[in-house]
Amino acid sequence: LGRSRYTSHIHTMGRGGAIGRPYDAPGEAIGTTSSAPWAEGKKLLPRVPARRLSVGSWSAAPVALELDWENGRLVLECPQGQLEARWADLSGELRPHGGDAEQLVLDLSRPPQFLQRPPPEPDAAGEEGGYVYTTDFTGGEASQVGRYLVQLPRGALSAHDDALRRAGIRVRRGGAVLGAGGKASLGPLSPARRKPPSSSPRLDAITLQEQLERALRERQARPTGICPVREALHGALLEELAGTIARDEPRRGTLLRRVAGEARMTIDAYRTVYEKSLLFGASKLSEAAALKGNLEGRIAELQAETASLADEVRSLTDLCESLEHRAQRAEAQAEAETHDASALRAEGEQLQGLLDALRPG
């Protein structure tokens, strides 16, 4: 947004500066000598109070006039804000207007810059901040109309006729014209001189960025993730930028709106996919919940069956162990009986041999 180009300039416009002073500031000299050709050896002009500023159908009062020779600009301060123009972009005439007034007629070849005081911050403790760039607060008159009329008390600028003449302002005193420093005389501005756009897109972007940051803070929008508040604010910002660009470049504004529409269609498509995925996930979740209920009943049945089978296994194991013990006891008894039978047979054979030996032959 080109913020860095204006940051240092904005910070220099704090309280007490040439632009940031209140309306009732004393008329003191502003700055020192300047290298501008119309301010050779002169100090900057003091702050001059004026009665009224008229631009087309718009007017404001009271007005303070500051001729900033050092920076080569003219500053008109009114209750709504400030209008700032460069000497290279204007010409004019100071002439009598009624019995006790003078009228400074200024013709601008391009729209001025607009400045306003931002809303005070909650922690500012009543302090008054400087000016920041903003959009046209005159209802478009100052951007479209090139002639500015400033009513002044008679003699308010009489001490500065030479400086005004060097700046390109003709001074009319008692019917005599003191000259205009080589600039063109007053007359209707040609359309070519008012060629610049109705507003500065760069300054509009800076202003919109500050308003967006303030709105995001006030509405407590989330900086990351899905946030409807941030989406609505960014959508309004894009519409404002598209409208601002379309006033000066209709084709570019139309293209920007088309890009925004395609981006919105893409977001809607993603949102539709997201909603359908939510429905699909919900249906699968309900099916899984129903299946889980059936499986829980089946699991309970199988657990009961497993417990009964485990009891049967334990009983059969006990029976097998008992039968095995009985078989071992029977085997041991059979071995003992076999041993006794063998001993009896051997004893019988021995007795039979002894009987045969004792039998007479």
Number of strands: 13
Largest sheet: 7 strands, mixed
Class inferred from helices and paired strands: alpha+beta
Order of strands in the sheet with most strands: 3-2-11-8-7-12-13
Would you tell me the overall average pLDDT? 75
Helix amount: 40-55%
**First-residue to last-residue Cα separation:** 149 Å
| Strand and helix order | HEEEEEEEEEEHEHEEHHH
Mind telling me the C-alpha Rg?
A: 52 Å
Give unreliable regions as ranges: 1-45, 176-198
Quote the beta fraction.
Answer: 15-25%
What is the number of helical segments per DSSP (H or I, 4+ residues)? 6
Outline: rod-shaped
Describe this structure in words.
This protein has helices spanning 3-11, 141-144, 161-166, 201-218, 228-248, 250-358, and strands at residues 48-50, 52-55, 58-60, 63-68, 73-78, 81-86, 90-96, 101-108, 113-116, 132-134, 147-153, 169-173, 176-177. The chain is of the alpha+beta class and 361 residues long. The strands form two sheets. It has a seven-stranded mixed β-sheet with strand order 3-2-11-8-7-12-13. β5 and β6 form a beta hairpin. α4 runs antiparallel to α5 and α5 packs antiparallel against α6 (250-358). The radius of gyration is 52 Å and the shape is rod-shaped. The termini are far apart.
